[in-house]
Every structure is written in structure tokens, then in C-alpha cells.
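SECTION: protein entry
WANTED: fold as C-alpha cells:
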Amino acid sequence: MSEPLLRVVDLQTWFQVSGMTAKAVSGVSLEVRAGEVLGIVGESGSGKSVTALSFIRLIPDPPGRIVAGEVWFKGRDLLKLPWDEVRKVRGREIGMIFQEPMTSLNPVFTIGMQVMEPLLFHYDLSRDEAWERAVQALDGVGIPDARARMGDYPHQFSGGMRQRVMIAMAMICDPAILIADEPTTALDVTIQAQVMELMLDLHRRRDGAAVVLITHDLAVIAETCSRVLVMYGGKVQEEAEVVELFERPLHPYTKGLMDSIPHVQDKGKRLATIRGNVPSIFDLPEGCKFCTRCPVVEPRCWTEEPPLREVAPGHRVRCHLVPGTPA
């Protein structure tokens, strides 16, 4: 197997708030392979977004801090690079679509200025050249009359159009990895489908480029991803190829997520739920992070953190009770 585009080893990102420590990401290891769409799924508070933001060191410090780990990209550990070198990677080599385009776009700058900014920073282009490439980028993501709209401000665009602008900004430097953090949040279903198809189509145009897709939507995961990480409590709880995960989910948390998906044949039946709530990030259980909600919890689950073990080729699970994992 070829060397992954991005390799993360034992990433730990903590936040200090009011004298307390929140271990938002606690020992995450993963790989992003060339050409794949890697899905990261889990409830709010699972550590998905913080994990992705840590890749390119966008954690606000204070209160956040990457306390340990390695993020290897093209032979360099991004966590050890000087800030000037990290800025050369952000946007150029690793692009990111943020959750909420209304708050990610600057309200006092025109759309054109914001789309041009990555080009002017990363390339030796004149403003006229950057302008033309920005117009092409907006046209490529389906903004009608792109040239005229370069002078408009974010509030003059709809939610779907703002998200298209965010995609144009993230893709304009043709990055090797695109991180899409909830790219369809707050959009209606029709626009969601259009935005997802647009993003994946742009990704397919660069040979070997990869996408890291963070979402709550298992349907989107099933349709677009080749491999999936299930996160909970700041840790990876299960990892598998997408077909394997949907056909044979092993972790109780993954099963709970799958069971909560509505099915046509279950019309009239009460939807299955995962009992309880995600525990406070300041007060996570000592053992398995899912033990407070697990339907098959055992006494040892409360005190012993299960390791993430490979139970089949490419299928890893963090659970004491899954057959094939050591007791």
C-alpha cells in the first residue's frame, strides 16, 4: 500500500476553561489515503471538528492547545513546523470548508476579495490575474453571473450560494486534501444534494486528491465515502470500509447510530434512540467513553479503557465485548 497523504499519530487536543481541562481529542490516530473520501461521523461533542482543525493548527490558543501527537504530510510533521511554513500549507495543500459560511465569510469584504485572497497569498499573481481566476472559480461552483457578483457582500447571497463560495475558496488552489466540516449544515435537502455533488465533482478532477468529510448524516456517508471513522468521547471507536461498516457494525455506539436511521418498511414504528446524552467533556468516564449509554455495558467497561483493535482486515473497534478483541 502506498504512503498515505496524511498520517495522524496519537493526536491530543485539550482546552483549559475556568480551571478545568476538556480533553476534546484524546489519542486519535488515522490515515488519509490518496483519492479516497474519508468520512468522520459522530454526535456533536465527539471531537470531529477539533480533530480536523488540529490538522492545520487552527485551534484557538488560548483556550485550546495541541498537547501531543504528530500530523505527517509530505514528509513533514505539521505540528512542529514554524507558523510561516504552516500558512504555506493551509489553503494551498490542505483546503477547508467550514461549518457555517455566514460566520466563516468576512461580512465587510466583498466575495471577490475573499476568493482572490488565497491566490494572492500562495501564488505570484497580479490582482487582475487573481480576479480572473476567482471569477472562473465562482462560475465553476455555479454562481450565476459570477463576474458581476464579485463585488457583492456575503449578506447578499443565500445560504446555498454562500456555501458554494466557501467551496470555491477551499478548492481554488487545487489542494491535495479537502476537509469539509458539515458542508451542508442548515441547507435544505435539495441544495444539500447539489452542494455535495459539486464538491465531489471538483475533487474528482484532481487525480489522487482526498476529501475528509465530517458529518452527522449517515446517508451522506453511505453515498459518498469509501472509508469511515466513528468518533465518540474524543476517540475513534470504530473504523472500516463504508460497505463493511454498514453491513457489519460492531461497536454498540455504531449500532445505535445505524438503528436510529428511519426506514420505509418501519413506517408507524417508534424510532430507535441511543439512551441518555453525550457526557460532559469535562467529566468523561474513566473507562469506555460510551459506558454511560451502552445497552450491553459490563462492570469492567466503567474502569478499563478498551484499546482500538483490528478485528478484521481494515476493520478496527474499541470495545471489550466485540469478538476477536483481546479481553
